[in-house]
Amino acid sequence: MSIAVLLPAAGRGERLGSGVVKALREVGGEPLLLHAVRGVRAVPAVGPIVVLAPVGLVNDLAVLLASYDVVVTAGGEQRQDSVRQGLAVLPGAVDLVLVHDAARALAPVALFEAVIAALRAGAEAVVPVLPVADTVKRVADDRVVATVDRADLRAVQTPQGFVRSVLERAHALPGPPATDDAALVERLGRTVVTVPGSEEAFKVTRPFDLLVAQAVLAGRARGR
Ligand code: C5P
C-alpha cells in the first residue's frame, strides 16, 4: 500500500506571538517545520509528503526542505482548505493518507507506525487519543453551565490516518468547518477508531509549548 502524509503548515501561529509564522519558529536552533518533516521522513512506510505552506512562503519552505524529498504547495484560508489542497496534488497511486499537523513537530515514529498498523488491519479512519487529565466544564459568559464526565472524553492528536477515498469523500461533503479530519469522516457516518496517543505529539500552540518542545529535544539529545 502506498502511504502519503499531508503536513498542514499554513497557519499563521498567532497564539505564539512574535509575528514569525509558526512553521518557521525555531526550537533547538531549527524551524519547527524542519523537525516535523524529519520526523515524518523517519517513518519507513511513508512515501510522498506534501507540505501545505502559508501563501507567499511556498518557495522559502521548498528551499528549507530541499533535501527531504517533499512537495511544497500553498495551503488555504482554513486548516480544512489546506488539507483539501494537499489531497488535490497527491499522486494517483496513494491509497492511505495520514494528515499530520506540522505544529505537532515532535510526534514520535512509533505513533505514525501505530496509526499505519491500524489502517493495515482494516480501519478506514484512525486517530491517536489521550485521556483528559483536567476536569472539563461547559461555560457561558464566564459561568459554569455543566461539568462534563471526563471518563469517556479523549484529547485527539495527529497523525490521523485514512483510506484515501474515504477522506476525499469526507472533504467533499458540504457542512460547517471542522477542527480535525476525523470529524468530517464522522459526518459521513464512517467508523473512526482510536489508538493510544503520545504526550510527545503535543501541538505547539502557545509560547509555553516552545519550552516543552525544547525540553523534549534536549531529552532526546541526551538519549533518554
Ligand atoms: O490552527 P491549528 O492549531 O488548528 O492548526 C493546526 C495545523 O494546521 C498547524 O500545523 C497549522 O499550520 C495548520 N494550518 C494550515 N492552514 C490553515 C490553518 C492551520 O495548514 N489555514
Outline type: globular
The description of the largest β-sheet is: 8 strands, mixed
Number of domains: 1
Per CATH, what is the topology? Answer: Spore Coat Polysaccharide Biosynthesis Protein SpsA, Chain A
Structure commentary:
This protein has helices spanning 32-41, 58-64, 79-88, 109-120, 164-172, 181-187, 207-221; strands spanning 3-8, 26-27, 30-31, 46-53, 71-74, 96-99, 125-131, 136-140, 143-148, 154-156, 160-163, 193-196. It has 224 residues and is an alpha/beta fold. It has one domain: Spore Coat Polysaccharide Biosynthesis Protein SpsA, Chain A, CATH 3.90.550. Strands 1, 4, 5, 6, 7, 10, 11 and 12 form an eight-stranded mixed beta sheet that branches. Helix 5 (164-172) packs across helix 6 (181-187). The mean pLDDT is 96. Cytidine-5'-monophosphate binds at residues 8-11, 22, 52, 75-79, 82, 101-103, 203, 205.
What would you say about this model in short?
The protein has 224 residues and is of the alpha/beta class. 31% of the residues lie in helices and 25% in strands.
Task: Please render the helix and strand layout as text.
Blueprint: E1 3-8, E2 26-27, E3 30-31, H1 32-41, E4 46-53, H2 58-64, E5 71-74, H3 79-88, E6 96-99, H4 109-120, E7 125-131, E8 136-140, E9 143-148, E10 154-156, E11 160-163, H5 164-172, H6 181-187, E12 193-196, H7 207-221
Parallel strand pairs: 1-4, 1-6, 4-5, 7-12
Antiparallel strand pairs: 2-3, 6-11, 7-10, 7-11, 8-9
Helix pairs in contact: 5-6
The structure holds cytidine-5'-monophosphate (C5P).
Cytidine-5'-monophosphate (C5P) binds at residues 8-11, 22, 52, 75-79, 82, 101-103, 203, 205.
